[in-house]
Amino acid sequence: MSNTMKLTLKIWRQKGPKDSGKLVDYPVDHVSPDMSFLEMLDVLNEQLVEKGEEPVAFDHDCREGICGMCSLVINGRAHGPQTGVTTCQLHMRSFKDGDTIYIEPFRANSFPVIKDLAVDRGAFDRIIQAGGYVSVNTGAAQDANNLPVNKNDADKAFSAATCIGCGACVATCKNASAMLFVSAKVSQLALLPQGKVEAQDRVLNMVHQMDLEGFGNCTNTGACEVECPKGISLDNIARMNREYMVASLKKEN
Amino acid sequence: MSVLDSKIPKSDLKDKWTYYKDHVNLVNPANKRSIDIIVVGTGLAGASAAASLAEMGYSVKAFCFQDSARRAHSIAAQGGINAAKNYKNDGDSTFRLFYDTIKGGDYRAREANVHRLAEVSANIIDQCVAQGVPFARDYGGMLDNRSFGGTLVQRTFYAAGQTGQQLLLGAYSAISKEVAKGSVKMYSRHEMLDMVIVGGKARGIIARNLVNGEIERHSAHAVLLCTGGYGNVFFLSTNAMGSNATAAWKAYKRGAYFGNPCYTQIHPTCIPVSGDHQSKLTLMSESLRNDGRIWVPAKKEDVMAIREKRKKPTDLAEADRDYYLERRYPSFGNLVPRDVASRAAKERCDAGHGVNATGEAVYLDFAAAIERYGKIECTKKGIVNPDSMTITRLGREVVKEKYGNLFDMYMQITGENPYETPMMIYPAVHYTMGGLWVDYNLMTTIPGCYALGEANFSDHGANRLGASALMQGLADGYFVIPYTIGEYLANDIRTGKIPTNTPEFDEAEKQVKERIEKFLSSKGTKPVDYFHKRLGKVMWNKCGMARNAEGLKQAIEEIKAIRADFWANVRVTGAANEFNQELEKAGRVADFLELGELMCRDALNRNESCGGHFREEYQTEEGEALRDDNHFAHVAAWEFKGLENEPVRHKEELVFENIKLVQRSYK
Ligand SMILES: Cc1cc2nc3c(=O)[nH]c(=O)nc-3n(C[C@H](O)[C@H](O)[C@H](O)COP(=O)(O)OP(=O)(O)OC[C@H]3O[C@@H](n4cnc5c(N)ncnc54)[C@H](O)[C@@H]3O)c2cc1C
Ligand code: SF4
Ligand code: FES
To answer: A129, A137, A245, B259: least CB-packed within 10 angstroms?
Structure first.
């Protein structure tokens, strides 16, 4: 292949949660534009192993943009230079020969680094556990079509539900706020009749847990929406704020 | 007499499950609290089982190797989930879903299990909707359906091209609700590395905490393996990078029989391989065959012109295109089952009609659908005599709404725009119908060890129909295991907590630690992937879409050689007591290197073609799979006898009382 690239990678290396990390340079050669970004890292890792060095740790699984596991900040942007894609969907044709690429983890106080580029996003699970569900037990459901849902609401609920829980919104926000993530779940369930019953407790509990986890405040910069690989809309944050206000007022009364 | 007892209830097919439920042992709610259940895996099968069992009152521990339960590979399922709701009023029924599944599986599945699956399918949709799963709806607010391969009715429920995501997030929300109550304890970033047997029963697991490398002992009264399929034996597949066979394989080595390991599904519509760096393959959902037409150039000179980029596919006139599925199978056309569609693509490519540089790609073309939808939209909007630009624009909007995320994915990976030029696709490994042998209760041959979802062999015979895996995973977890597990656990109410300081746990933990030590002390020079890729090549070439006795015999020897080379020359960096992804991979590949051999052995012993198992020696004159019902209407269940010895092949005869076995035809 003639049009392969030579690149310099500056990768964040950190042995463990308590160690301090640093950027380390790695030259890579013969990078094909058809490779995915993570395949490029695979090649680097194979070379490192062959030399007896420790490969770079990074999270990934589905490699098709849906599991939400991959989580790199590339040249200062969560999930890299393209909009609407996850790290694993990024291909090397987005770069050119001679580029230097900075690769860092999703940083936030609530996402401690485990090793190198892998971080702990357990806080997101705990926020969902605080109320991101409908309390229905198996076997208690009525016939699905007994509950018609207006198509517009159903479509909006679906859009909110496509959040993959990756945390790019947090990593991008200067306040490390998790509002986009939390509001996506709150909105999905608030828009559907099944979710309305518990809507008020849900929003209060989820927001409370979000605060406990140490995520920052939302100051409406909108950076999260820009970097969200699934295009989760800021409208969800507005909806959550309304839900939250109504719920807080009711609670006081 | 077979040693295998499938425990099928004795009554008419349609009453079996009702009869079973009416007579099964139940565990009193107060006793449930003192019973522990381990659920390994939080995909559709595991998450639904863990949540349902916890709701019933059992103490559940759930494990997954990803950083969150929500990331199990079920998340990636695209097209949809089947259910016999007959909302379309097009003649669907429980029996029809049952019949289609048995026929689609080429008459190699157990009638009783499949009928139960069809019966509970409708409840799944109800349950998911109640959880807030946002399925696609029509303008009346009712649930919408689409068609999938191998059926003549529309029974597939979907959420754009992200059905698996939405269903899994539903199950994840259910398990999260139970975690919050303390009835499920969740262990993410934990990998099960062995199963512990006490007194002949499954009583626990050994797991590695993947963050700090600690080896942990966990005990329970029953262990559920919901660990997904083993398609990654082939290295390249549509599975996630971490999907693996370790849990099932460890159970096999501890006494669970492995059912039909050679039945693998090669999915016809995946994005073709682009180079040596390839790490996985991406599926383009079967739902695309609702609207996409598959073709290759009829003339070789056009093939060459396209490969050399002198011509574009859109330059070719209708008459110069060979819509080979429509030609060969006029009644099902592009919607033939997967095994049939895959083999047909291979046949055309082997005959030299493949359209990319490697000769391994065919077209999936949406131009006709875009035009058809565009015209309908024009009519709806009252546009008279629309020009072709308007038709195309409106048609593309419809296609975008239906498949937008898939088209985006395609564009990201290939850099081509499928709204303008046909997609290029080729078959790839996708699903494993084989898995741990289970009886009607979903119990393996180890008492107390159950297998659910893709990890078992149960419902899909030799070929799975589209949108049936999601259905099966959720059926097993929500509606089957909550009943069947009581039958076993009713005898355990006085057992008390299972201690972990026993010789059985000592022995299992010792084995796990020794293996890790062996990896880390190996003085080799090659990374794990090097061996995995070699294994994958052997499997794909000799145990893939077409197999023959000669090739399979060679494959068995080649795999043994790769395995020996692996243990001598692998290099695993890092330490045991830290986050170590190379070490994780090494363990998984070591198991694949054993499982691959069993798959070839199974394929070699099954002297017939059926579903995804195509033995070149056994085909009809038209090149279709030729079954041998007299000798092979049975499940092959393999018993481990030590690595140095050959495993033993047991048979479970399949009895068909409600369906007549015929040559499967989609013409
Ligand atoms: C790309 C793609 C698209 C698909 N589309 C469809 C579709 O449209 N319709 C359909 O019906 N089917 C589809 N399928 C098939 C279907 O998605 C799967 O068969 C099904 O989701 C499997 O679910 P599961 O719960 O059995 O396993 P999985 O979802 O794979 O879950 C496995 C779980 O086990 C855990 N695990 C595995 N090993 C260990 C271990 N050793 N220790 C601890 N945890 C472990 C994992 O962490 C995970 O939680 C698709 C499959 C793929 C790959
Ligand atoms: S809102 Fe977007 S960026 Fe944030 S977790 Fe969800 S998908 Fe990721
Ligand atoms: S690896 Fe799954 S979203 Fe990137």
So the answer is: A245
Q: In this structure, what DSSP letter does residue B137 have? A: B
Residue closest by Cα to atom 20 of ligand 1: B74
Distance CA B566, CA B568 (A): 5
Q: Are β-strands B59-63 and B184-187 bridged in parallel, bridged antiparallel, or unpaired?
A: parallel
Please indicate whether residue A38, judged by its CB atom, sits closer than 6 Å to ligand 3.
no
Is there a shared CATH topology between the B268-429 domain and the B502-631 domain? no
Pairing label, strands B258-259, B293-297: unpaired
Domain boundaries, chain B: 268-429, 502-631
User: Which amino acid appears at position B15 of this protein?
Assistant: D
- Non-local (6+) Cβ contacts of A44 within 8 A are A9, A26, A28, A55, A56
With pLDDT > 70 as the criterion, what percentage of chain B qualifies? 100
Which residues in chain A are classed under CATH 3.10.20.30? 5-115
d(CA B98, CA A7): 56
Q: Which residues of B are annotated as catalytic?
A: 338
Q: For B368-395, give one letter per residue: b (16+ CB within 10 A) or e.
A: ebbeebbbebbeeeeeeebeeebbbebb
pLDDT band at B663 (very low <50, low <70, confident <90, very high): confident
Collapsing DSSP states into helix, strand and coil, what is residue B479? Answer: helix
Question: pLDDT tens, B490-529?
Answer: 999 999 999 999 999 999 999 999 999 999 999 899 999 9
- Burial of A198 per CB tally in 10 Å (0-12, 13-18, 19+): middle
Q: What tens digit of pLDDT does each residue of B10-57 get?
A: 999 999 999 999 999 999 999 999 999 999 999 999 999 999 999 999
Q: Whole-angstrom distance between the N-terminal and C-terminal Cα of chain B? A: 39
User: Phi then psi for A15, rounded to 5 degrees?
Assistant: -65, -45
Chain A residues with CB inside 8 Å of B526's CB? 50
Within chain A, which residue ranges are assigned CATH 1.10.1060.10?
122-250
C-alpha to C-alpha distances, B172 to B49, B72, B131, B181, nearest whole angstrom: 11, 10, 10, 14
The encoded tokens of residue B167 equal 């269903």
Give contacts of B274 with chain A, Cβ < 8 Å.
Answer: 34
As a whole number of angstroms, the distance between CA A143 and CA A165 comes to 30
Is there a contact between B581 and A147 if contact means CB atoms under 8 Å apart?
Answer: no
- Tally of CB atoms within 10 A around A252: 6
What global pTM score does this model have? 0.97
Q: State yes or no: ipTM above 0.90.
A: yes
Of A52, A161, A189, the CB nearest to B166: A161
Contacts of residue B209, Cβ cutoff 8 Å, sequence gap at least 6 = B187, B189, B190, B215, B216
Residue A1 has pLDDT above 50, yes or no: no
Q: In this predicted structure, what is the pLDDT of residue B150?
A: 77
Does the beta carbon of A165 sit less than 6 angstroms from any atom of ligand 3? Answer: no
Q: A5-115 sits in which CATH class?
A: alpha beta
DSSP assignment of B61-75: EEE-SSSSGGGSGGG
Q: Per CATH, is B502-631 categorized as 1.20.58.100?
A: yes
Structure tokens at B119: 């019966």
Name B182's Cβ contacts closer than 8 Å, sequence gap at least 6. Answer: none
Strands A22-31 and B258-259, by their bridges, are unpaired
Q: Among residues of chain A, what percentage have pLDDT more than 70?
A: 99
| CATH code that applies to domain B268-429 | 3.90.700.10
pLDDT in tens, B169-179: 999 999 999 99
Q: Closest Cα to residue B402, out of B208, B660, B163? A: B163
Class of domain A122-250: mainly alpha
Amino acid at B65: F
Residue B182's region, left for phi above 0, alpha for psi from -120 to 50, else beta, is: left
Distance A61 CA to ligand 3 centre (A): 6
